[in-house]
Amino acid sequence: MIRFNPLWETMAKKKVTTYTLRVIHGMSHATVQRLQANQPVSTHTLNKLCKILDCRLEDIAEYVPDENS
Fold first, then answer.
1. Closest-CA residue to 47 (of 62, 61, 28)
2. Tell me: the pLDDT tens digits for 11-26?
3. Which of 1, 12, 34, 35 is close enough to 39 for a disulfide, judged by CB 3.0 to 4.6 Å?
4. Are 2 and 8 in contact (CB under 8 A)?
5. DSSP label at 48?
6. DSSP class of 22
7. Are 36 and 7 in contact (CB under 8 A)?
8. Are 34 and 27 in contact (CB under 8 A)?
């Protein structure tokens, strides 16, 4: 499972809010909700986040094995 917990930490460090993502950078409300719920997002979205936050992929997402695996 991919989780976006590091995203929220990175955003806090860089003083970026979900409002900033939506209004300033044009990210849809639905995409922000998907990130908050740890639901799948496109690689385009991941690329956009890395660009906005000037960070690496591991600063916004992490892989955690499913318990059923």
1. 61
2. 999 999 999 999 999 9
3. 34
4. no
5. H
6. I
7. no
8. no
Q: Is 50 exposed, middle or buried (0-12, 13-18, 19+ CB in 10 A)?
A: middle
pLDDT, position 69: 60
Instruction: Give residue 48's pLDDT.
Output: 97
Six-digit token string for 64? 């955690």
Q: Cα-flanking dihedrals φ and ψ of residue 3, to 5°?
A: -120, 150
**Residue of 58, 63, 60, 4 lying closest to 36 (CA atoms):** 4
- Residue 33's H or E segment, with its range, is helix 29-36
Fill in the amino acid letter for 28: S
Query: Residue 8 CB: number of other CB atoms within 10 A?
Result: 13
What is the enclosing helix (H) or strand (E) of 67? none
pLDDT > 70: what percent of the chain? 99
